[in-house]
Design a protein that fits this description.
About 55% of the residues lie in helices and about 5% in strands. α10 (about 210-220) packs antiparallel against α11 and α14 (about 285-295) packs antiparallel against α15. The longest helix has 21 residues, at about 85-105. It has two domains: about 1-180, no CATH class; about 190-315, Alpha Horseshoe (Serine Threonine Protein Phosphatase 5, Tetratricopeptide repeat). It has a four-stranded parallel sheet, covered by helices on one side. The protein is mainly α. It starts with a strand and ends in a 14-residue tail after the last helix. α2 (about 45-55) links the parallel β2 (about 35-40) and β3. The chain is globular and about 60 Å long.
């Protein structure tokens, strides 16, 4: 087995119904792999760091490096360019290229389109423009050096690699024998569908049909990637958004009581942070404080849950109805 490269979209996985964390799990399984080689973001709250282990798929680290110093150089370089008219023009051209690529990714796509020539060619053009305008080095966060070193670390390995979508064209050029997956027989399945439903329910919009969304959540019993406890928590967020605090509390307490076993590692923090808010809104301040402290005592809680808990400890949460509710 050679290297098969799968695209990572980072937080955009939460916004793509047909290419979400559940879809990636299904793709990895379809390739017969039990682990992935991680060549993407170090973000501890990355959606795949929940989904892959919950599905029983290991994440093998050690292929990426800490490039924080390069990010710092990049920021300094941009500040320098802003001082001069020619520098500002270069920044505008780079910004236009970035905006065009971001607009392309702003439209959710299925796996075959993401790995098709339209998107991958656009990624290659975007980075070529960045190199031409800002030069290889601080202006590109030392991209060429980073990818060359990453390819060197991956060379000699076999398996499925998770790498940023826009890195794929250059990794393919640097890794003889590496390939994109054959998607001719792949169709997103139940794991992908459930993940899309939960992702959608965490991010309510003014125009949403909340009754239909609740009914859809209540029909499901969940799976390993999107367990029933998460579906209950997302349903509770809908009740919270419309001010039905008692229903929200009942659902969240049921979800909290089922937080055991092999669950996505972020789930406990999200459930408890939301439960703390609901208990606060119902006037049960002492219990809310204990719930917030439970979030901070977890071995892992996503940053948004920790921020929610810390804010709740400083000041009681007060419900403000605005027609929508974000995740935690």
């Amino acid at each position: 087995m050679s290297l098969t490269l799968l695209p990572d979209l980072g937080d955009l996985l939460r916004l793509y119904p047909q290419y979400n964390a559940g879809t990636v799990v299904e793709l990895v399984r379809s390739l017969g792999a039990r682990e992935v080689l991680w060549a993407s973001s170090a973000d501890p709250d990355h959606p795949l760091r929940d989904a892959l282990p919950a599905a029983g798929l290991a994440i093998r680290e050690g292929f990426t490096e800490d490039w924080a110093w390069a990010e710092a150089e990049y920021d300094q370089f941009l500040d320098f360019l802003k001082l001069y008219p020619q520098g500002r023009e270069r920044l505008r051209e780079a910004g236009r290229a970035e905006g065009e690529f971001a607009a392309l990714l702003g439209t959710p796509a299925a796996p075959d389109r993401l790995l098709g020539p339209e998107v991958l060619d656009a990624a290659a053009r975007y980075h070529e423009t960045q190199r031409r305008v800002l030069d290889e080095g601080p202006g590109t966060v030392w991209r060429d050096r980073r990818l060359t070193r990453l390819a060197g670390r991956l060379s000699g390995h076999t398996g499925v690699v998770i790498a940023p979508l826009d890195d794929l064209p250059e990794l393919l050029a640097r890794l003889p024998g590496a390939a994109l997956p054959d998607l001719s027989a792949f169709t997103p399945g139940e794991t992908s569908r459930l993940r899309a439903l939960a992702d959608r329910a965490w991010q309510l919009r003014e125009e949403d049909d909340l009754t239909a969304l609740l009914e859809a959540l209540e029909r499901e019993t969940g799976d390993r990637v999107t367990p029933e406890a998460e579906l209950q928590a997302t349903a509770a967020s809908i009740h919270l958004a419309v001010g039905d605090l008692q229903a929200a509390r009942e659902l969240l307490e049921r979800a909290a009581h089922s937080l055991q076993g092999e669950l996505p590692r972020s789930l406990a923090g999200l459930v408890l942070a939301r439960l703390g808010q609901v208990r606060d809104a119902l006037g049960d301040r002492d219990l809310a404080v204990r719930t917030y402290r439970a979030v901070l005592a977890l071995s892992h809680a996503p940053q948004i849950a920790r921020d929610t808990a810390e804010a709740g400890l400083k000041e009681a949460f007060a419900l403000q109805l605005s027609g929508g509710a974000d995740q935690a």
